[in-house]
Amino acid sequence: MKLADLEILDAVANSKSLQEVALRMHKTQPAISQSIKRLEQNLGFSIVDREAYRLKLTEQGRHFYLEATKLLAIRDDLKILANEFAEGNEAKFSICYEPISYQNIYNEAIGDIFKTYKSTEFSITSGPRFEALQQVNSGRAELGIGPWFDLFHATGELETMKVGEIELGIVAKKGLLPSSLQYEALESYPCIAMFESAFAFDSERLAYTLNTNRMKVDDLTSMKSFLLSGLGFALTSLAHCKNDIDNGELERIRIVDRQDSFTANIHVFRKHTRHHGPVARAIWSRFKQLGEKYG
């Protein structure tokens, strides 16, 4: 068994199809299939459930993968340590920063570390709902910044800390809806919502309403653009819409017979490993200072 085989197993466990695995590993699908078969022959049991509609590990494959991640984590630690010995700090540091969490104090923290470590390339990405969690778990980002719920701990071995909060409320173009109405009446209006993520716990059941007249988007910028166009209402970050609410283009909608505002925690999080490079340590320390008031 080779580390390369375990790397493919890791990609299989975090992908929806063999095509996605092939793209991630920069190999052809036949090559990926052969690697999986070779690993199964070496192990003596099937690791991929070939009867499943989506790419899925067998029960034995899942248990084996959980143990294999420990070896892959040690490999990652060794890579970080070797890079630190060779260059003094990470050559590249990747952060997935979800737009719903944007705050100036976080931007300043990232900016200060960026200016301190001039030889490190910073890669900042964003994406749809829970993208930061997805990228950190798959190893595509060293640090995630985004909404956090306790059940996220079940997705991987993560180190996390609270650094802020966001308030969510119902928003629409001014005059599109009554400024206050009952929940049943809200369901008759078009809704703009975010696409669900790939996580099993994330589904349409988490939606505030189950309107049939619904438009789905994958980023907050598109959502606000359609809100300003008067295409519907959305449950979204009130901070993200503050300027438009203040100038009268958008307004907050109140639901008289049901809770209509929610507070979500913002966390920074990373994979739990035994060693982090200088940039990772510095940025974690800076966010730790921001999170001190939350205990």
From TrEMBL:
GO terms for molecular function: DNA-binding transcription factor activity; transcription cis-regulatory region binding. InterPro entries: LysR_HTH_N, LysR_subst-bd, WH-like_DNA-bd_sf, WH_DNA-bd_sf. Residues 1-58 form the HTH lysR-type domain. Keywords: DNA-binding, Transcription, Transcription regulation. The keyword DNA-binding applies. Belongs to the LysR transcriptional regulatory family. This is LysR family transcriptional regulator. The lineage of its organism: Bacteria, Pseudomonadati, Pseudomonadota, Gammaproteobacteria, Alteromonadales.
